[in-house]
Amino acid sequence: MFFHHKDLAYTVRVDKPNPVFGRMLQQAIGGPEGELRVMTQYLFQGWGYRGPEKYRDMLLSTGTEEIGHVELLATAVAMNLEGAKSEMVDEVVTNPAVAARMGALEPRHFLSAGLAAMPSDANGVPFNANSVDTAGNLIANMRANVAAEAVGRTLAARLLELTDDPGMKDLLRYLIARDTMHQQQWLAVLDELGPEMATNAPGDFENTDEYAKHAYSFINHAPDGEIDPGARWLSGPTFDGKGEFVGAVDPVANSAPLTPLQPAPPEVHAGVEATGPGGSGAASGVMKSVVGKVLGD
Questions:
Q1: In sequence order, what are the residues at sequence separation of 6 or more whose Cβ sits closer than 8 angstroms to the Cβ of residue 201?
Q2: pTM higher than 0.85 for the full model?
């Protein structure tokens, strides 16, 4: 159950409305680095979490905070769009819609939203939840969350460079500070779980038998280039404490001969050169059987 409080999570002040900057702020709402992404990510991670309640509570609390951040940015976009319709249009351009695009203002801010924010990025592309990471594994989720906040904080820092508006600078500095805390809290969970548990996701699967030798070896796929032998990932203990790094392994060392694929049956229409003798026989029957099962026949 969620409740909406009429007050904003932080003060939003725009001293000089700038529709162009309003468009830029859309990236922080609906871009893959934006607040809609982390809001959705943390809420769905929390709703599906099956472990200790404190982690679920933390995820849902932070996801709810991100709803408030979306509201802050949507308010900031709307305030930057105030007065946009009355802006001067270059005498060379007679069509205001063309002038808007040339001026880097997003036309849909006026056409679709009536001078309001959209659930989209700076190019007007609607938010896509495919950028959301919900692994159903606490370690994987925490690592994804650290990365999400890292790119989000980087975006906010870049937006800060694009504005001279004191109010917008104040809001962005606040959001950057919150992104700092969020990165730190996700890292704190990994630290609390301990290196043996939290270094590799999922933490309940071990590399054993003949696969153990592949777990900590760096395969050099650029044999013509020199690799600094002192690089941390080439030697020394691994971060999970379970092995030693082995560096610059020749990729040929693990290679195996290519196994030719069987000829395709005629109904695949792969070409005469790809259809071997007897293709219309047993192979064709197997293919039809598989297709039939998929279609429920």
A1: 135, 137, 139, 140, 143
A2: no
